[in-house]
Design brief:
This protein has 91 residues and is mostly helical. The protein has one domain. The chain is 88% helix and 0% strand. The protein contains three helices and no strands. It is elongated. The two termini are 31 Å apart. The model has no long low-confidence stretch (mean pLDDT 85).
């Protein structure tokens, strides 16, 4: 295995660990429950009410995805600092 392949595997593992850590969080469980409730409400809505509901749904899902991205980004920064400290670049 080349250095590049090892590095890619290492970074992939860090990313997978960050995703798993996020999915194990209470925040993720809350968002999953919220999505399930929205799906249930969506199936119960009448056709004329669905348009506003779709707008609200898309907005909420955008907020949830922004939060997920923020959590993963912060985890990446922490991992980067850890790596730089281990390499002796930072003290």
């Amino acid at each position: 295995m080349s250095n590049q392949e090892e590095w890619n595997e290492f970074l992939g593992n860090l990313f997978n660990n960050a995703i798993q850590e996020y999915q194990d969080s209470d925040e993720f469980k809350f968002l999953r429950e919220k999505r399930e409730q929205i799906d249930k409400r969506l199936s119960e809505k009448h056709l004329e009410e669905k348009e506003k509901f779709y707008d609200d749904f898309v907005f909420e899902m955008g907020l949830d995805e922004e939060r997920k991205t923020e959590v993963l980004y912060r985890k990446g920064l922490k991992d980067c600092i850890f790596i730089l400290k281990e390499l002796g670049v930072l003290e």
